[in-house]
Amino acid sequence: MLLGSSPSSPPSATGSPSRPTRITQIAFNSGFFLLAALALSAILSSFFSLSRVAWSSDIQNIVHNWPTNSSLTTYPTAFTRDILPIPIHSHNDYWRHVPLFSAISAGAISVEADVWKFSEADLFVGHDISSLSRARTFKSLYIAPLLKILKGQNPDTEFTHKQPETQVNGVFDVDPSQTLHLFVDFKTAGAETFPLVLAHLEPLRTPVNYLTHYNGAAVVPGPVTVHFTGNAPFDLIISNTTYRDYFYDAPLDNLLSGKYTAENSIIASTSFERDVGHVGWRDEVSEVQREKIRAQVGEAHRRGIMARYWETPGWPISVRDKVWGVLVGEGVDLLNVDDLKAASSLRW
Predict the structure, then answer these.
(1) Backbone angles phi, psi at 169, to 5 degrees
(2) pLDDT in tens, 113-157
(3) Is 225 in contact with 263 (CB distance < 8 Å)?
(4) Do the strands 334-337 and 213-214 form a parallel or antiparallel pair, or are they unpaired?
(5) Of 178, 200, 238, 254, which residue is least crowded by CB atoms under 10 Å?
(6) Rg (CA), the chain
(7) Are 245 and 215 spatial neighbours (Cβ–Cβ below 8 Å)?
(8) Selection from 171, 258, 163 nearest residue 222 by Cα
(9) Which of 185, 220, 197 is nearest to 94 (CA)?
(10) pTM of the predicted model, to two decimals?
């Protein structure tokens, strides 16, 4: 030992713990609290999981696991279940990937078929001659599917025998009284096409009459209301004064002539672009244009006739939506649309 140095003394048994001991203790305490927190979290998670299970056992689990093909799930008229009918017209409906059915599934209460007479047996459907095919006919795309839907919505069961014979359901399960408007646009000469169109409508007349008709005194509503437009011959349409189950698509811009009444024209239509005017992508619908719409729609309604505008803007979307809003606000009865999804998403 060197002079002046003092020997090191061992730590006292009652003194402060060494540094390694303090670190060990801190680690032990931290681990304890971490384990306690994890345990508490697991307990709470189990509690909430049990709560969810208990709740889902009451209703959510039943909904989630409900059998899709059970007799408790379906019913005779369920084909169009949950579809709310809305006042939109499926413009050029035959262009859709699934004609008629796409429109009905979106809730559209009106569809349109352009028909061409190039044989004595068939009416071909398409926008122009180059788009026609032997398979796509008025019968295959519209008459046959409509008949099948209507038969399904009017089943023959032990219960239906108890309802009045005059009660016939339309295509919409939610509102069986809602008619489906079927616009038939004559593309070939009216006088020649007219008899063949009437013949094609026969399956919708008998043995069950699904057609809205005029009985000589009043219009009797039915599940399907047929409107002739395009080259359709007005004089031939109104020639039968005692009974007819088709109506003329009157010119909305010419109702003051007095020719068109609620008995021969349930709906009147005109071109928005031609009669109301163009609306540019930076423009609003002007007050003059609004007054024109208001006057035409008002005149139709005074005569008991519904109003529709075709050739409305489709692009830009902002302009289309503005025009849609104005037309609905001014009381137009059928909104002419190409985009079914957008139209069905409006706040009707």
Answers:
(1) -80, 150
(2) 999 999 999 999 999 999 999 999 999 999 999 999 999 999 999
(3) no
(4) unpaired
(5) 254
(6) 35
(7) no
(8) 171
(9) 185
(10) 0.82
- Can you list the pairs that 244-253 forms with residues at least 24 positions away whose Cβ atoms lie under 8 Å? 244/213, 244/214, 245/201, 245/205, 245/209, 245/211, 245/212, 245/213, 245/214, 246/184, 246/197, 246/198, 246/201, 246/211, 247/212, 247/214, 249/183, 250/305, 252/296, 252/300, 252/307, 252/308, 252/309, 253/296
Tell whether the torsion through CA atoms of 46, 51, 52 and 56 is positive or negative. Answer: positive
Helix extents (H) in 233-329: 234-237, 272-275, 287-302, 317-329
Q: pLDDT band at residue 56, thresholds of 50, 70 and 90?
A: low
- DSSP annotation of 60 reads I
- State the Cα–Cα distance between residues 225 and 196, nearest whole angstrom: 18
Structure tokens at 287: 């007050």
* Intra-chain end-to-end CA distance of the chain, in Å: 103
